[in-house]
Amino acid sequence: MHLTQQQLSDTFSSIRKVHFIGITSPFCSFSASYLLSKGITVTASEANQDSEAAQKWIEKGILFKGGHSAEYIHEDIDLVVFPNGIIPGNPEVEKTQESGLPYVLVQELLGIISQQYKTIAIAGTHGKTTTTALVIWLLHKTIGTPNFIVGDAKDKIAELGTNWESHPESEYLVIEACEYKKQFLARAPRPYISVITHIDLDHTDFYPNQSSYNQAFTEFLSHTTNTIIIDDAKKNEKEVLSNLPKDIAVVSTANLKKELGTIESTHLFGHHNQENLIRAAGVAKVIGISKIEALKALSQFPGISSRFEYKGTTKQGTLVYKDFAHNPQKITACLQGAKEAYPNKKLVVVYQPHNHERTKTFETELINSLKQADVLIVPNIYSLRESADERALISASTFVRNIQKKYPNKEVFFTDELGVYPKTLQKLTTFSNPNNLILIVSAGDVDKIIPDLLG
Q1: What is the pLDDT of residue 147?
Q2: What is the percent of the chain with per-residue pLDDT over 90, rounded to a whole number?
Q3: What is the separation, in whole angstroms, between the first and last Cα of the chain?
């Protein structure tokens, strides 16, 4: 029986035993850790048990060895936690539903937990991971490490070395709240502070147009209990704000920018990161951290894995960086930041588009976002959970041909195979030049080539 969040809230105090189907995502791990801190018995299963996160849960005696099995579902379990959605064919999911045991999705459980804290929820089309990390770091360096969750397993804050932590003594929870399929409504149903990065249409497999996208943000922000931090000078943001209750305080990042000017930070480059820094400074202002303390902490931010992350150098001395960017705005910002950080280097971009549907929908914008690349190599389109019809929307070769039409004087290569990337790079003399910079841009699996590049 699928419980609503209200039903879960009503019965939460009586829960004594919980089973997680999948536990290694930061959202699942944080939620499990919270339940354990309350004396609740937790068990879990996980398909991939080779990860560092899985090994830690095995050592704690929480994670069963051997993947998923219906035998883990017993009548004495008070609640079963599914991942982001129901998994067809999963034996534990099927037995839970057949037996009528109460279950929720992990974001629904997290939403109940988040209401036990002053939750700072960061949402938006792009910039939310870096902004989330900045806010976590800011609190860590000033008033104490908060509870926190950064949204992807790849995203770890340097020095802290993790993407989630539980600190029961802290009153704050900092969370990356994704808008995909309106998940932020469940993850952070009553945020204390809502931080909005951008409201530019994305996830067009769910949101048909900008209006529906804006409506989702309006609904999310309407539940803010203290303050919204947002750029109120932008079109979509203005529209969203106009539909909100007037009693919610708003901090304008446009005004903050005028007040603070440029914020110095050792590991962040580019205009887009100035915006991220301004948003974090806005959080400091709301919760009463002094301007001097805030700016000092932000200047020391050590960076985040997968965001313009330095990976090493080739044998010839060429710098190699990796970035998770996968939509036009993120790619534009990433390339701009690279150019600003290394203005005298030739920018060689290894770009793997993310999903055929996204590539087709935003083809023009994606091609425009690659303008600053001096050399561009594309192998394939990374496709995850797409139907055959979605995969047929556009091919990698067609996408590359359209890039070549747009930039006839640019070096653009299509390898048609991920495995030949390193060989292609080695053959091109441009890659053996230490005056160049290799930037790998993808949210897919193209980073597999990095060991060969550095080897």
Answers
A1: 96
A2: 61
A3: 52
User: What is the DSSP track for 176-235?
Assistant: E---GGGHHHHH-SS-SEEEE-------TTT--SHHHHHHHHHHHHTT-SSEEEE-TTSH
Domain 5-106 has CATH 3.40.50.720: yes
**Quick check: do 5-106 and 117-299 share a fold?**
no
pLDDT single digits (tens) 7-50: 999 999 999 999 999 999 999 999 999 999 999 999 999 988 88
Distance CA 231, CA 251 (A): 8
Q: For residues 113 and 10, what is the distance between their CA atoms, to the nearest angstrom?
A: 13
Residues in Cβ contact with 260 at an 8 Å cutoff, skipping those fewer than 6 apart: 278, 281, 291, 295
CATH domain 117-299 topology: UDP-N-acetylmuramoyl-L-alanine:D-glutamate ligase (3.40.1190)
C-beta of residue 71 within 8 angstroms of C-beta of residue 49: no
For residue 308 the two structure tokens come to 């313009």
**What letter represents residue 1's amino acid?**
M
- The model's pLDDT over 185-199, given as tens digits with 9 standing for 90+, comes to 999 999 999 999 999
Q: What is the pTM of this model?
A: 0.77
- Indicate the average pLDDT of the chain: 89
Averaged pLDDT, 300-308: 79
Contact by Cβ (8 Å): 449, 354: no
Q: For residue 20, with 0-12 CB atoms within 10 Å meaning exposed, 13-18 middle and 19 or more buried, which class applies?
A: buried
Angle at 448 between CA 445 and CA 452, to 5 degrees: 155
Enumerate the domain spans of the chain.
5-106, 117-299, 309-454
CA distance linking residue 177 with residue 186, whole number of Å? 9
Q: Where are the beta strands (DSSP E) in 197-351?
A: 227-230, 249-252, 309-313, 319-323, 346-351
Q: Does the domain formed by 309-454 have CATH 3.40.50.300?
A: no
In this structure, the strands spanning 17-21 and 436-441 are unpaired
- Is residue 152 very low, low, confident or very high in pLDDT (cuts 50, 70, 90)? low
What is the amino acid identity at position 369?
Answer: S
Question: Looking at residue 421, what is its pLDDT?
Answer: 57
